[in-house]
Amino acid sequence: MEQQHPLPLSFVLPNPTDLPSLALGFLDGNFEDLRDLLLRSSSLTSNLNHDCSDLNDRLLHLRTDLTKHAVSWISTSLSAKVSLEDLRFNLESLLCLPTDSVGKQTNWELQQLVEELCRIQNQRKYFVTALKLESLVGDLEDSVFHPIRSHKGSTLQDLAVKHKRFSHAIKTMNEIELMLGDVTRHHSQWRHLVDSVDSRADKSLSVIRPQVIAEHRAFLSSLGWPPKLATFKVEHGEVATIPNPLLLMQGDQKESYSQSFLLLCGLQKLNTKKEKRKKLHTPKDNSNVGLWATDELVKPVASRMEYHFMQWAEQPEFIFELVYKVTRDFADGVDDFLQPLIDRAKLVSCSAKEAWVSAMVQMLSGFLEKKVFPKLIDTFKEKHMKSEAISSWFHLVDQMVTFDKRMQSFVNSDTCLSYEGSSTAFSQDISVMGLFCKKPEWLKTWGKIELKDAYRKTKEDIKNERAWLVDSERTRLGNESTSRSAKYVLSTREDYKAPIVADSFLNRTWRLIDHGLSLPAILPRIQFIRATATKFLWCIFKFMLLEFKKIDLSYFSLFEDTLIQACGPINAARYLESKLREWSDDLVFVEMWAAESSAKVDRKPEASCQGCFFGEELKGLVELETNWLMEIITVFLHQFDSLCSDDFNINTVLWEDNVITGSSNLTVSQGVAEALDNLRRHLCVLQLNMNPKDFLDLWRNLAEGLDHYVYSKFCSGEPVLRRKRFNRFEVDAETLLTVLQPYCVRPGAFFPRVREILRLLRMHEEEKVRLRGALSRNGGNNCLRLFGISNLSAQLVEQFCSCY
Predict the structure, then answer these.
(1) Do the Cβ atoms of 468 and 499 come closer than 8 Å?
(2) Half-sphere exposure in the Cβ direction for 644 (13 Å, CA)
(3) N or C: which end of the chain has fewer CB within 10 A?
């Protein structure tokens, strides 16, 4: 074997211009020329090594002496502490004794002495704490900044030495953090000491953390992580799973990875303690922090997957499918191998599987945030590309929602306690839809797109000629087969006799709500639903209002088709109201209502109406229904008045002309008979085509209006009346009560004034005498209640009794 010649000095020695001035001065002082360098370099090196060894020995000796003196001083300090505490206790006992004017001065001096002793004791505590922290920080700095001597051996042995040094440094930092936490809680005035120690400890942490992460990444790379994603094989029609290098480790290699993993977990646990002490994060935020060691597994996988992502930018379904497959294939291996290590690291409430899924989801969210959505937003801003951008947006969001649901199902597959809602209890870190929570401007854009699309499709739906029609034949058969008590238990659109378009309204509203519920954070969820579903509901109310205004409701041309047409918007409104109340009772909306009430997100103070999430919308619906029913009732009353306005007026001449002698032969007035016949026909049409609840409200309010109408006509007569007019009034009033006979058992209960007028007309003479006597003695309405009269005024009853 040929002898290898040494390299020329020009290749070995550094360039003099690259050396610092101190180094050049040292070389010039020891070597005169190149020959002198060659002759004396070895002896100089030996002398320098000897001096360094002496200095290290001297440093070790000084450190040992310092430790001995510190222990001796602490021992002496503890003895002094016990003596001072005993003295303070005795002095405080003296202060509690009864005092007189002579001993006041003594007590004051004793109090001053106690305060001085407390001050000395606090100073002693400060010095002891500062000394302990100085010792720990010095030990930490020696461990972190001390150079590591290279060992001849395998890479795993060298790695074990590094791990031992890192572990010692982390243990020391935990001890420092424990002391700083105690100082922060009990001695907040020592903030300068805390800041000083924090500064030095953070410098050490900033050095050791990159080293630990670099060693961990290098070890992962040596394991063959990440695996190649292009090694898929199709066997028997199924895609083969990806081999997991973590499960292939054995022996020392497995132990080395475990130690590296535990070091990262220790650093993360230490960082969490520091942040909690400094109050940088709330406990809620800390619960959602990922696992650093798992993040290191995902980062190289992400760099390899990004190539495929860029190829599938126009086909996001492939991106989501790849991420889901990689997450699923490695999840079990990660859980089986890493969960015991997490338990060894004593990380509370940390799941290896959830940390793995969270890291993969966050990786995908980062790609969408940087590469996909910005390009989609730019396309959306271009007018000629807006329709294409909206289509791509909907497709992407649908894929995101589906992906989140699959991930939720996958994470919950190992536990029986899972919520079957629309991702409402899903962690933001395990939801790709959490991207909208971090980007409010994108959430706002998405809401505008969804609202405009729903509005456009609804306008097309209401253009259908049969959109507002009520299937009267089907509802008639349903009414005939339903009992009187059960017909008010309504649930479906058919039960409410609502038109077909009502289902379209609800389906589009719920689609907007469901998209909002896919957001993991509650406040963005509320903002989205308010910006889409709530606004869309008010658009629906406007559509129903415009439809009702098209109907020609007038008392002189009121036809059955007009009433049937009016039932469409009324039934749709009642159906929407029932569904909104049903949704508001759901736990999801109750939680959102509570959160909104406390945060007052985009709502006015009066939004508390109805006490539920859709309170304001329900208030608007109820107001619409009430106005429409009152409009129909007003038309009925006007028509009734136009047909029989003169028949109930006792002061009218027609009554004298048409009266028939003999009350037993009296018949109903012609106008009253015609008005009541029209009223019966209209009520039959409404009963067949209007939902039972609104029809119940309608005929009850109609009865109240007719009662008031007849009462006002009766009161408008002259004080001097004849019996024949009363007989005719009695016949017409009795016939009026029979109008509501098909809808209730006691129709007279809904005409209280008419019923009491009839009671007055049928009173015997003796009872009238007693009534006049009671009115003359007591007066007022109190005595009328004894005669069963509570809705007529005392003045009217007195006029009646005096003239009849």
Answers:
(1) yes
(2) 26
(3) N
